[in-house]
Amino acid sequence: METDCLFCRIVAGEIPATIVRETERTLAFRDIYPKAPTHVLVIPKEHYGDVAVLAESDPGLAGEVLATAGAVAEAEGLLGDGFRLMFNTGVNGGQEVFHVHAHVLGGAPLGPMIAR
Ligand code: AMP
């Protein structure tokens, strides 16, 4: 655990979150500032800074994050109309929390992939 990492502290139970799904190695919880009717974050419990580091270090765990994201999408009823799965990565990617997380977004048309 990284003591100064917000999402590590959520994993440790030190900061509250609305958890929607948990596996041995992953956690899914609602985004505190939702950008869509459904907005859930999926993280590995272990700290990796971004998706590239995670995929390089532990591809199996990266797959578990994807599997949890798919299960969340199903549980949230997003499979029929579709959803967006997004990993903001690094400064240009707009990443603000440097513990890798997938955004599961859905529940309404989400518009273009990138706003200009
Ligand atoms: P990103 O810009 O991809 O790093 O996304 C970080 C996300 O974390 C943002 O969508 C925030 O709204 C969300 N967030 C920040 N603090 C919390 C928190 N305590 N609980 C849940 N989501 C959070």
Q: Any key phrases for this structure?
A:
116 residues; alpha+beta; HIT family, subunit A; 5-stranded antiparallel β-sheet; 3 helices; 26% helix; binds adenosine monophosphate
Describe this structure in words.
This protein is of the alpha+beta class. The chain has one domain (6-106): HIT family, subunit A. The protein has helices at 6-11, 51-57, 59-75; strands spanning 19-22, 26-30, 38-44, 83-86, 102-106. A hairpin with a 7-residue loop joins β2 (26-30) and β3 (38-44). The mean pLDDT is 96. The protein binds adenosine monophosphate. Adenosine monophosphate is lined by residues 6, 15, 17, 31-33, 41, 88, 94-97.
Number of strands: 5
Strand order of the largest sheet: 1-2-3-5-4
Structural class: alpha+beta
Strand content: 15-25%
